[in-house]
Design a protein that fits this description.
It is built from seven helices and ten strands. It is α+β, with helices and mostly antiparallel strands and 232 residues long. Strand 9 and strand 10 form a beta hairpin.
């Protein structure tokens, strides 16, 4: 999974005008539940926990949504839970409704959120699964900068392998409470562990992300464990 961020000093790239596009920060439990397909009780709990829902519309038609954590957040696939400083936010659980996919809804929704943050909010963070290339492209198009890749370590823990922007990767690792690591040791989200047993390329096809030639296969490539849900 890749970690990306936007800092207050960053620009927001210009996107073309989308007629009728608007974003609403809502507290209407039933409206949110209808668009997100969540149970009203789940919506109520998220609101109670400080998560803010942004609903995207074209005129009066719902087209997408996303959530912003303001106090505490978690990454279920990695079993990480972390507190957010008052100056930082975490974006999660975004979706574009099927009929509106391919129209650039996601980056426009992200940009609206970036622009609407008060001056006291200095940093926003987001992750995306590696198999979801449209999500990664939308994040970059909106103006968020990828800073590193989250990876399982050989001991089963989680670390962040930084890209080019070391300062931001350090800040992201500190926020998540994980160390920086030099390389991705065990990339597969299906099992979370590495083995010393090499398998054939056919077995490795069951792993995600796809294994590189220099990467050790993980245990699911050998044991054929069922893949977990990769949604964020």
């Amino acid at each position: 999974m890749a970690l990306a961020t936007w800092w207050r000093s960053d620009s927001v790239p210009a996107l073309s005008l989308f007629p009728g596009f608007r974003v609403e920060l809502s507290c209407d439990t039933h409206l949110i539940a209808g668009i997100t397909r969540l149970a009203p009780s789940e919506v109520h709990q998220r609101l109670h926990d400080g998560h803010q829902p942004y609903l995207a519309f074209v005129d009066q038609t719902p087209v997408g949504y996303g959530w912003m954590a303001t106090r505490e957040a978690s990454i279920g696939e990695l079993d990480l839970r972390f507190a957010l400083p008052v100056t930082e936010r975490y974006l999660w659980d975004f979706a574009t409704l099927p009929a509106w996919q391919g129209y650039g809804i996601y980056p426009r929704l992200l940009q609206h959120i970036l622009r609407q943050q008060p001056s006291t909010v200095e940093r926003l963070w987001i992750i995306h699964a590696p198999e979801n290339s449209p999500s990664g492209a939308g994040i970059i198009k909106a103006g968020l900068l990828p800073v590193g890749r989250l990876s399982f370590r050989s001991d089963g823990g989680v670390g962040l392998a930084p890209f080019e922007h070391l300062e931001r990767a350090q800040a992201g690792a500190a926020l998540l409470g994980i160390p920086l690591i030099e390389s991705i040791l065990a990339p597969c989200w299906s099992c979370g562990g590495a083995t010393h047993t090499y398998s054939s390329s056919a077995d490795a096809d069951s792993c995600w992300p796809p294994l590189r030639p220099t990467t050790r296969p993980c245990s699911c490539a050998v044991e054929r464990k069922p893949a977990r849900n990769h949604s964020t």
